[in-house]
Fold this sequence. Notes:
By secondary structure, the chain is α/β, with parallel strands linked by helices. It has helices spanning about 5-10, 20-35, 70-75, 95-105, 115-125, 145-155, 180-200, 225-240, 250-255, 355-360, 390-395, and strands spanning about 15-20, 40-45, 60-65, 85, 110, 130-135, 165-170, 205-210, 245-250, 260-270, 275-280, 300-305, 315-320, 330-340, 345-350, 370-375, 380-385. Strands 1, 10, 11, 12, 13, 14, 15, 16 and 17 form a nine-stranded mixed β-sheet that branches. An eight-stranded parallel β-barrel has the order 2-3-4-5-6-7-8-9. The mean pLDDT is about 95.
Amino acid sequence: MDRVQLQTIARECATPAYLFDIDELISRIEMVKQELAQSIQLCYAMKANPFLIKPIQTRVDKYEVCSMGEFRICERAGIAMEQIVLSGVNKEKEDILSIMETYGSKGTYTIESLEQLELLEYCAAQTGNVIRALIRLTSGNQFGVDEEDICTMIEKRKAYPHISFIGLQYYSGTQKKKMEKIEKELRYLDTFLQRLKEESGYEAEELEYGPGLYVPYFQTDEEMDDGELLQRLRNLLSELKYTGKITFEMGRYLSAYCGYYLTSIADQKKNHGQQYAIVDGGINHLTYYGQAMAMKTPYYQHVHKNVQKNEGDVTEENWNICGSLCTVNDVIVKQLPLKDAAVGDIIIFERTGAYAVTEGIYLFLSRDLPQILFYSKENGLQMIRERKQTDIMNGMAER
């Protein structure tokens, strides 16, 4: 979608709204696969943006699913169980039993603790299945288990006849700017896999790794050469002793660039010498990883409602962009340069394809949820979710 198409859509659609460019999303996925020379599988971390799972079903190999809510979204979208990696630190027995009764041994499960190991063995035994499982190795927080517990699990794996331990899962965080950290992690994982092989005669079939690649959100951020970055990553993989299957779990890196958040200026004022533009959205809809006190300027476009307006001789002014919530914290960005800004103009915030659509404080003040739109050359503009009221969730049910 080019700039003209984007601005035309912005003028025609109601705001606030999320717009996801499906062509851009698919192009980015294909770029990643091409640069890595098909040497890895891709697992989409759907928590980044669950609305995107259906359009990329044939483009990714797996989906990381971290709750029953996400699982039900996959079911409604027709995602095959074989593509699902059921993760999450809290797995409920009733949920796991229901999934195994319905789908048998299909799919993959993660083991986040000794307790989860026992739970999965119990559920698999009760339903007569042998399931595939990845043990999550902790990076030093509440997720996963440490090395010694993994060694114990592998040593005693025959005590769990209904679980096939296919390998490890590892994720330590997002927005990694330095390849040195990723290299250190991959070498650490390589060494640990070799240890399991030497001490327990265990050869992992699969390593699922979340590299947490960096996305520059703000205009002061360093832009990255994706081709060079992925080439270095491919070279690192070729140096590993581990020769099994490698799956990269990605969410932000795949989806961030395809998203746009559209919000209109609803009011303008000057208080104590500061200019404020009140928009019909706010921080309940828009979050940027790394934004602090609204001081950083994200990538954006200013679209005049009046398409005939000439910007040639207009003076640029700085505006504090504030949302519609009744809190002083509802500031999206301070001192945003705009030319001849007026009520009705649209501000398009770019690179909002990851997390913003689900991460905001949506129920605060009972404001409506934004509409969600898809765009692609093949299907044009599609309404995926209409604007929805939230007051029904915040108020008492009718008697």
